[in-house]
Amino acid sequence: MDVDIATVAILGNAGGALIGFAVAITATRYQDVPGARQYSWLALAGGSWCAVSMAKIIASNPAVIETAYVIARTVSSQIIALWIILVLVYTGRRSWLRPSRLIPLLIVANADVLLLLLGQGRFGQAIAVPVTQNGVTLLAVQRGVAFAATLTISYLPVLLGYGFLIEFLFRSGNIYRRQTAVIGAGTALPMIAALLYDLGYTPHPAIDFTPGVFAVSMLFVGWALFEDESLSVTTLSGDTLVDNLPDPVIALNDDCVIIDYNAAAASALGHPEPNGEHLDNIAPGLSEQIERGEVFSLGDSITYYNPQTTSLTDQFGTERGRLVVLRDVTGQQRRQDRLEALQAATQQFIEAETAEAVAEMAVEFATAVLDQNAAGVFLEEDSVLEPAVISETIENNVEEELLYGSPTDRPESKLWQTYETGEIQTVSLEQDGLDPLDNALMLPLGSHGVMAITAYGSTFATEDRRYAAILAQTTQVALDQVERERELRQSRSSVKRRREQIEFFNGILRHSLHNAMVVIRGRAEHIRDDVPSPKQRHLDSISDWCGTLTEMSETIRDINNTVTASEAERLDTVDLNATLRRSIESLRVEYDSVSVSCELDGEYSVQANELLEEVLLSILRNAVDHNNADTPQVTVSVQQAGDWLQVRIADDGPGMSDELKTKVFERGLSPDQTADGFGLYFVSVMMELYGGTLWFEDNRPTGTVAVLELQQAVTSSKAGDDPQSGDTETAATEAQTKSHNR
User: Fold this and answer.
1) Please, are residues 105 and 84 in contact by the beta-carbon 8 Å criterion?
2) pTM over 0.70
3) Whose C-alpha in 103, 104, 392, 697 is 20 to 30 A from the C-alpha of 678?
């Protein structure tokens, strides 16, 4: 009996030591698993505990047994400390691993060891004495009276660890419940064995089976941590994977192997049981589509999916797999495709040159993009709706007379009613026997006609009606554009023809006027010798008027060229200083009693042409003609206003009323109000062609100030000074396109 119990205990501890050491070595291969390092140390301590316990049973010397007992209690206390550390790491309480919290726990766990090492007398004694029980005599260690207290204290960290495990087991949303339960149940075995031994329920006081049981329990813990995949990654999706979701849901591990799925996923993948299969083996390229996170279709299906991936992490934040939800976005994708197709086609619609081309694109779009079986565009011509473009299905199944609508021949026609009311109508075609056409959607195209779209089924879906209405509006806009372009071409042709006629007659008029002036001047000079000296002033007047009319003819030619020229041809860089000086000199020649002062504090150039001198002279004449002073005073100055130059011509005349300031540029103003009704109207026309503005202000104390605002030109010298300035031509172009309003 003695040999049998001792042999069993020795073999059990030997086996436990081997198991503990083997498990500790094996755990080193799983260092990426949370808690693996602490588990490895725990298994190593368990193996050492078994080895020391085996030595304690084999030894026969009381001193050796007492020493082995102290070592065994020390190792078992460290197992308690390592156990609490493993639980803290496993349950995600790494914040507890601070010295302020960890040291008190370690002291409590080693309470009995401290008593053995520091205690004296009967409080801390550990004496090996022979004990006979059940007919077996072995040396057993007896403890002092304080042993019960320190033993109870040592159990406190163990109970605390189990409390953490139980809390973690029932924590809301915990995805490791099964794994936690296995770990808790496995470690409970040595706990029970230790309690039984400490309470005296043992075959002999010298034999403790707790170390061997602890080593075996490490096998359960290791299997739960490292080997049983169903207790780790799969359970990550257990709380979120709902089998009856309409969208496919797939749980993948790190190697992209399917570990769980729902019924919708099995159907989408076309595999009844994809569990354990690599994702790309079932659906090649699917993993790449999921990684990109973009909408895709699976296989030959027209169903579109939008992948949404959620990382499956453990309590330490380590990714252990992925949960993939394939949201069915077929409807959304179809809407997006339709809108993109309609947007892309809009430019083609607008660029169409004929109504027939627009109608053809509309029918093609309705059948190809809107997925309708047939369509037709019916355009109005002389109060009759006629088919411009129709699908082959309509042409083959609808009688020809039904394809026309008019208020006289077919007023009951749905086509004509839609055109007349301008309202969208849904028309049933079943009663007309137009199989396979079930119904039609009639959409008005404004004054152009009607668009009809037919479909299978009894009704049109709301979405189809909406897109059909958008298509009809786009078609109407395109037809409006075609009509405007046609009218514009006709208008351009008419304007061109009128301009050519005006240029022709103006040319004849100028040529005839020039020839007439030459003849008149020649005849006047021919008779000069026969005219008495007192009468020759009349010949001088005739000769001067001939010159004036000839110059006016040339001016009218320049005006006509300016008006008919393009903006790029109309403007040039004009030296404002030189032009002002010539205009002022001409004014002094025309008027004997006039005082003109000119203030120019810089070199100025503007965007205009050779008629600017005549424009300035007209304003100067107006300032003198409406001045009742004996010697009219006129002051000319130039001011900078940003990119513009203001030519200010001030006089000391009687001034101008506010009403006249707004009407002075009208062509119909009488000559007695402007001295020469054509003069200021000519100025306003030219300023508009220059892209400038003209207005009048009051002069103080009396008189009027005419302000001509012109676009400043960038000369070559200024462009050289300013590296950011462009050349003159560029400045001219910008000036032409700039809108400047006062």
Assistant:
1) yes
2) no
3) 697
